[in-house]
Write a structure and sequence with these properties.
alpha/beta, 45% helix, binds uracil, 236 residues, Uracil-DNA Glycosylase, subunit E
Amino acid sequence: MNQSNKKNLEFIVNSGVNYFLQDSPRNWFESEKKVELPHINIETDEKKSQIELIIKDLKDHQSSLQKNAKNLVVYDGNLNSKVMLIGEAPGRDEDEQGIPFVGRAGQLLNKMLLAIKLQREDVYITNVVNWRPPDNRTPTDDEILEYLPFLQRQIDIVKPKFIFLLGGVAAKAILSTPLALGKLRGKWHEYKSLNLEESILTIASYHPAFLLRSPQYKKQSWEDLQMLQEKLKNES
Ligand code: URA
């Protein structure tokens, strides 16, 4: 290493930055062990039947998206969770299985959850749009608006304490803003429902599919996840 490179390196390390000084890429989402989240189970049956009603309404709702898809994809996980994760729309694997986030992005999502000591079963996972858009295209604004009432009803029923938005479509739908994720992430927002007394603390972060294509954003994603973990620690 020449003298000027050595000086640069010393300067960077002395500034407190050291995470990139590794031979191999760091796995930001590595975790050691899981911790159980406390759940309140009394309302489960009631919530389940209310969600079943939404599923029925979604099936009855005629839309062009439905014509091109195989299976309706509504939710996975825990109806009593304090945490709701909202993605964009089902992809090919989700369309095959009728379950959100089961493909490659879903596997990364599972790792991201484990990194903050959560299992998939600890959280409620859903999407803005419930049918796979043709060729996995991004849902249009009209489609987002068309499915928003079904999503809002799910939020009202699950009543999470925290919402974690995965990607720009979920951020646009729930925070009603066209702002890019780079501007929205890293801070808490509030989601207010007319049907809930308390507003729900909401964070917007990168979609796992985006992180698979652009792993350099995993560090920011990890910071957002840690913000959620910090709040959950204060809850228990
Ligand atoms: N991407 C999403 O936004 N949702 C899924 O369920 C799968 C991939």
